[in-house]
Amino acid sequence: MRYMLKYAPAGLLLLLALSSCRKEPVYDAVPEIEFRRVEQYHFVDTPFPQRPDITSLRDSLVLVIGFKDGDGNLGLSSSRDSEDFQPPFNEGSQYEQNFHTVMYIKVEDPNNPGNSRFEPYPFPVPGFQFSGRFQRLSADDRPEPLEGEIKYSINEINASEFPLLRPGTVIKFDIYIYDRTKPVPNRSNIVTTDEITLFQSGG
Fold it and tell me: What's the predicted TM-score (pTM) here?
């Protein structure tokens, strides 16, 4: 035991020296993402307390991607007083949202009986997607490489609001993100999630 104590300080100094000499990773200034997983939760809601026999199916999804970015300028502030609501991130701009999704639904292929294919989901409002903003990932604007995970929640996929979505319907998403580069933000590569089967159970 005394040998361990005797050599522990030297080992600690060695670890500190190694960590201080460690170089920061070098990543491209254009963000790179990879699909990690989908976390899926199923619910059976009773919208009318006096009618427990009337239920509504709902799924909540968390899309998880990994990212690498060379200058760390990822994420947008939620404060409307911040520069992150000024051009090019202003309302109505294609850069207003920095986490973009395109949802696809699996349907039978009319040209190949017995086979299926994915088509863009026909949302009732043209141009609608489950896209949004994720928060800034660093506290300042100092350029530095960043890597990690982004978890993006889609809380309301409701069978009553999306009539094409029924128990057993299979969907998937394309995902890409933007950074804060001005005047034109950099767009990442596009990744595709695994297939997601909706409304499988309650709880």
Answer: 0.83
